Amino acid sequence: MSTTNNKDMPELPASDRAWALFLDLDGTLVDLVDHPDSIVVDDALRARLETLTALLDGAVAVISGRAIDDLEKHLHLPTLAMSGQHGAEWRNSQGDRQIAGDHQKALEAVRQQVKEQVERDDALYLEDKGASIALHYRHRPEAGDMLKHNLSSMIGEYSDLLELHQGKFVFEIKGQGYDKGVALERFLAIPPFADRCPVFIGDDRTDEDGFRVVNAHQGVAIKVGTGDSLANERLTDPGAVHAWLDQWIMQLQRP
Ligand SMILES: [Mg+2]
Question: What residues contact 197, with CB distance under 8 A and at least 6 apart?
């Protein structure tokens, strides 16, 4: 059985099985920052992802709430598989992309109302991802309850098409029926992910859908940070995630 050097870290995935690795980005691979554009993806992280992708025969994907265009802007890894907007957007390692569309009309109606809400308050920031929208309130934390109430009533009449999610100082409105678990299942149905056991690392509530799928596949679910989680394993912060991934790289490189 494999062990890491650090007792506080989860055990490394067993070397006698084939694994697929799924990674959240914000709060998992990079530190959370005040503005979503301010994240830092350095060359070491990029190299780590490329090395893992090679060692796992391409079975590595980033599963994020961000749009794929936004992920690519920061990662610059055109052959890395990705799912964006909590599963509504999807790209395989050949660069083929798909985006969900059923909810777009309803979202357009709500988008305008959310924009008006944001225009009334400089401390709010609207991230328009195309197939979903995110309202960031890190600079107005006391407004959480009020925003939740307002956004819930905005999507009320479209509740069969849209859903509201709360993350760390962010509310997201996205299409029904897509989440990070759906994204994982979709990858696990196709090569090079099919017939592999999933590892998923994430830090936020929306990652719990992914952990549920990983547990159903007897994979490894790792929650970053504190708080209740379906994940059985923990890492403290993105630095610890990097260290754990580096340990795994060394294990995978061993002949
Ligand atoms: Mg996250």
Answer: 13, 17, 18, 19, 20, 217, 218, 219, 220
Mapped onto helix, strand or coil, the DSSP state of residue 191 is coil
pLDDT, position 7: 59
DSSP, collapsed to helix, strand or coil, labels residue 49 as: helix
Rounded to a whole number of angstroms, the CA Rg of the chain reads 18
Separation of 180 CA from ligand 1 center, angstroms?
11
* Whether 199 contacts 20, CB under 8 Å: yes
Task: Spell out, as residue ranges, where the chain has pLDDT lower than 50.
Answer: 1-4
Domains along the sequence of the chain with CATH: 19-99+178-253 (3.40.50.1000), 104-175 (3.30.70.1020)
Q: Which residues are catalytic?
A: 24
pLDDT at 147: 96
Within 8 A by CB and 6+ apart from 255, the residues are none
Residue 18 Cα, ligand 1 centroid: separation in angstroms?
Answer: 25
Q: How many angstroms does the Cα of residue 63 sit away from the middle of ligand 1?
A: 9
Q: What is the strand order of the sheet 170-175 is part of? A: 125-128, 132-136, 170-175, 162-167
What pLDDT is attached to residue 152? 96
Q: How far is Cα 149 from Cα 203, in angstroms, rounded to an integer?
A: 25
158-178 pLDDT, tens per residue?
988 999 999 999 999 998 888
Burial of 175 (0-12, 13-18, 19+ CB in 10 A): buried
pTM of structure: 0.84
